[in-house]
Amino acid sequence: MSNTIVIGAQWGDEGKGKIVDLLTEKTDVVVRAQGGNNAGHTVITDGVEYILHLIPSGILWPEKSCVIGNGVVMDPVSLLGEIDGLIAKGIKISPDNLRISDRAHLVMPFHREMDAYKEAKKGDSKIGTTKRGIGPTYGDKVDRIGFRLHDLVGDPILFIERLNARIADCNVLFESVGMDKLDAEAIGRDLLAAAERLAPYCADTVEILHRDMKAGKSLLFEGAQGTYLDIDQGTYPYVTSSNTTSGGACTGSGVPPHKIDRVVGVTKAYTTRVGEGPFPTQNDTLADRFHKMGREFGATTGRKRRCGWLDLVLVRYAAMVNGFTDLAITILDGLDDCEEIPVCTHYELDGKKLSLPPAAAKDFERVVPVYENLPGWNCDTTKCQNYDDLPENAKAYLARIEKETETPVSMIGVGPARDQTIVR
Ligand code: GDP
Ligand code: IMO
Ligand code: MG
Asked: From atom 26 of ligand 2, which residue's Cα is the shortest distance away?
């Protein structure tokens, strides 16, 4: 029995879904502990592509259990749509293999409206959110006015009373800024219908996870977003609203830190970011190249991802704050046709060398990335099955990452399919 957390080391979309899918084979329970349907995790198995938003990627393994923990924010209608979509693709989903925390907070239609409105109002300083209502839902949670799953399924009458009062408040606000008013009756009807279907999934998942651990089962925590979207450690305010770093897996599931044995950091062999905010190594030529190949489009919103070279300042700090025991380097094959590969080893800011990221977004915008050019390997790695099959320059690239981050590389992605991962 051993418990593992998988965490993105950059700005999300590092390929966590694929790594979680790979590690699921040797685990019993896959847990999501933070974020919501802002996440989009791609898994390709037997030639079929699945994009998971709220449901743990482990659901694709019929004999495994999945848990949506207390730290997740959950849009009930969207979740049911995701369940139905997966069932239509032949995936088995029932309360036998999916349980949802009774303490998970609910994303309501007014949260989505507020998200869109706040973004529009920010104009050029917008965050570039996924508009899934994530920030306003976590905001209400911290403000202690949120709605949790047990409110909806446990006491629908009181839930509707509270909902109507909240929507009446929202409507005063919405009207004052020229937004359409919400129809409380229709929203209540949709949520009550969702409640009926979700009730069998609602459970005390803390108790379930502790019972599973006592029975010797192993847990795999599927991080959503990435270290630099973390509300505390990320490029604030250009972040999401949850703790995406490893500590969030514990608070968001009720599993204490001493039960964690392994923390896998997932990083692309280069860097991407979707949404606004600082990105020191951004390189539009690299982005154009990937976009022309049909790569690097957001799995949730379809937006073009910004692309750039590997930033070791980011991965170094991510290794520190998450306590990475090992690294999974994904999309190494994305660099197959490069003659030379620039990697950023540190930044300069006002003449000073920085080996770790600055706190302020405005400083992050001003840092000058300092690169070292590493030789490319200029050949196809997508058929490599073992570490020894990799070209020498690719091995040297990986060794350099290990040295700079003081973390061993345990997995290497050389293509999107389940079997295109080298395990060392
Ligand atoms: P996640 O949010 O971290 O799970 O990542 P996404 O699914 O949003 O984005 C990662 C993208 O890279 C997806 O399209 C994956 O299919 C793809 N991918 C993952 N690992 C590899 C790899 O090693 N090579 C290639 N070419 N694609 C990969
Ligand atoms: P996965 O799990 C990449 C980004 C948004 C925006 C910021 C805030 O697939 O890696 P939010 O809707 O959360 O309030 O948006 O965070 N973002 C992601 N970027 N991958 C994700 O998830 C993301 N989830 C949110 O683009 O910049
Ligand atoms: Mg993604």
From this structure: 275
- Structural domain spans, the chain: 4-100+202-263, 106-198, 267-423
* Candidate list 21, 41, 75, 346, residue with the active-site label: 41
Q: How far is the CA of 158 from the centre of ligand 3 (A)?
A: 36
Ligand 1: does its nearest atom lie under 6 Å from the Cβ of 296? no
Count the Cβ atoms, other than its own, within 10 Å of residue 103. 18
Mutate which of 229, 267, 279, 296 for ligand 2? The one with the most ligand atoms within 8 Å of its CB, which is 229
What would the pLDDT profile of 305-351 be if each residue is shown by its tens digit?
999 999 999 999 999 999 999 999 999 999 999 999 999 999 999 99
Question: How many Å apart are CA 283 and CA 417, to the nearest integer?
Answer: 27
| Spatial contact of 259 and 1, defined as CB atoms under 8 Å apart | no
Q: Concatenated DSSP letters for 227-245?
A: GGG-TTTSSTTSS-SS--S
What are all long-range contacts of 180-188, with beta carbons under 8 Å and residues at least 24 apart? 182/109, 182/110, 182/113, 187/108, 187/109, 187/163, 188/160, 188/163, 188/164
CA pair distance 244, 247, nearest whole angstrom: 8
Q: Does domain 4-100+202-263 have CATH number 3.40.440.10?
A: yes
Q: Global pTM? A: 0.98
* Tokens, residue 149: 């799953």
Residue keyed to tokens 């651990």 = 213
CATH superfamily of this structure's domain 106-198: Adenylosuccinate Synthetase, subunit A, domain 2 (1.10.300.10)
**Ligand 2 binding pocket includes 12 (Cβ within 6 Å):** yes
Q: What is the CATH number of domain 267-423?
A: 3.90.170.10
Ligand 1 pocket test, candidate residues 331, 333, 390, most atoms within 8 A of CB: 331
210 is catalytic: no
**Tens digit of pLDDT for each residue in 56-83?**
999 999 999 999 999 999 999 999 999 9
Closest CA to 419 of 64, 47, 31: 47
